[in-house]
Amino acid sequence: MDRLKPNSVGLLGVVFMAVATAAPITAMTGNVPVAVAFGNGIGAPAGYIFATVVLTVFSIGFVAMARRITSAGAFYGFISHGLGRVMGLASGLLAVLAYIVFEASIVGIFAYFADTTINAQLGLDLPWQLYAAIMLAVTAALSYFDIHLAAKVLGVFLVAEIAVLALMAFGVLFQGGGPDGIPLGPLEPTAAFGGTAAGFGLFMAFWSWVGFESTAMYGEESRNPKKIIPIATLVAVVGIGLFYVFVSWMAIAGNGLAGSVALATKSPLDLFFVPTEQTVGHWAVVAFQWLMITGSFACGMAFHQCAARYLYALGREGLIWRPLGRTHPKHGSPFVASFAQTGIAVVIVALFSLSGQDPYLGLYTLMALLGTMAILIVQALCSFAVVGYFWRRGGNKLTTLVAPLLGGAGMITVVWLLFDNADAAAGPAAESTLFAAIPWTVAGVFVAGVLGALYLRKVKPETYDRLGRIVLEDTEERAERIAAT
C-alpha cells in the first residue's frame, strides 16, 4: 500500500500549516471590517473571545480522538469510528467538497489582492485570471514535493504576515490607543451580542478559524503524531484566538469607537491601514498590502494540501478513483491526488471567469460560503462522533462526553448562524443562482455519501469494511515502532 512519507514534519511545521490555513491576515482584513460595519460593531473582539472559548471546548474532544486515531482523512476517519461507516463516508465527502472549493475560493481573493496592489503600486493593469493561473501553477509545483518544503514556504509567509499585524497592534498599544484611548468596552462579553446584527458578527468570527482542524490530516507525515497533533491543535486554536482578539481590539482602539464603525463601513481595509500608517509608517502599509497577497497564497496552498490528503485517503480505500491513493516513490507526497485537486480548482476558476464573475464578490465569496457550510456540519458531527467512540470504550467524562457535547452544540449554533446570515455574508452574490444552490449542493453530497456507503455495504462488503479503517492500523504499527526506538 502506498504511504505518505512519515516523519516529514514536526510540531512547528504542523502548527504553521494549520495557522496558514486559517490565514490571519486574510481573516483580519477580510472579516473584522465587515463584522464591525454590519455585525456586532465594536464588539467584534468580544465575538472572537466567544469563538475562542467554543472552539477550544470543541478541540478537547477533537484531540482526544487524535490521540487514538491518526488519519490523513481526519474527520472522515474520526466520524467513521465514532458514528459508523455510513456517516463517516457522507462526512468525508462533505469535507472533500469543502477543501476542494476552499482552494478555488482563496485563488479568487489572491487574484483580487494581487490585481489591486500591483495596479496601485506598480501601475500594471493585468487580468485577474493571470494571477489566478500563477497561484494554481506554483501551488501544484510545491505540493508535488515533500510536505516539508511546503511547510517551509508557508512558515516564511506566515511569520511575515503575523509580524505586520503585530506591528500595527503593538504600535497602537504603545501609543496609548486613539481618540478613546484603549477602551475595554470591545472586550466585554455582552458586546459580542451587540451591534446591528450580532449573529452575522459571530459567524464572521468563527469563519476566521476555518482550517485549524487540518492539524489531524498531517498525522501520518508527522513525528510521533499521537503527541504532536493534539498539541498542535490546541496551540493553533488558542494561539490564533488570542492573536485575533488582540489585533481586532487594537484596530478598533486605534481608530476610536465611533470612528471604527464609520471607517469600516466606508473603506474597510483602512480600519487596519490607517492605524498602521499612524503608528508604524507608510512603509508598513505597503508591506501590509504585499503580505495580503502572500498570506492568501499561503492559505490557498494549505487548503490544497488538505484537499489532496482527503482525496488520497478516499482513493487508497478504493473509493472515487483508486490511483488517488498513490504516493510519489521519492517524495512520499500524494502527487496524483494533488494534481487532481489542481485540475478541479482550475475548472472551478475557469467557470467563474467564463461567466464573467468577479474574483472577490463571486469566486471568493460563493465558494467560501459553500465550503464553510459543509465543514461546519462535519465539525458538529465530529463532536458527536467523539461521544460515540468513547461511550463504547470508556474515557474521561469531561473530555470525551461533556466537552464534545458542548462543542457539538456550539457548532450547531454556528451552522444556524450561517444559515440565518447567509444573505448578508454573500452580499451582492446572494442574487446569483449558485448562491441559492449552496444548501442543496451540501445536502446532495451528504445524501450521496449515505447512499454510496449503503450500496457498498450490500454489494462490496470488503470495500465497505475498509472505510476509515486502513489508516488506524498503519499508525498503530508506527506508534509501536516509535515507542520501541
Automatic annotation (TrEMBL):
Cell membrane listed as a keyword: yes
Keyword tags: Cell membrane, Membrane, Signal, Transmembrane, Transmembrane helix
Key word Protein biosynthesis present: no
Record's subcellular location: Cell membrane
GO molecular function per UniProt: transmembrane transporter activity
Signal peptide as annotated in the record: 1-22
InterPro entries noted in UniProt: AA/rel_permease1, APC_superfamily
Main location as per UniProt: membrane
Segments passing through the bilayer: 46-65, 86-114, 126-145, 157-178, 190-210, 231-252, 290-312, 333-354, 366-391, 398-419, 434-456
Topology class, membrane: Multi-pass membrane protein
GO CC annotations on file: plasma membrane
Annotated Pfam families: AA_permease_2
Protein's name in the database: Amino acid permease
The organism of origin for this protein: Kibdelosporangium aridum
Record lineage: Bacteria, Bacillati, Actinomycetota, Actinomycetes, Pseudonocardiales
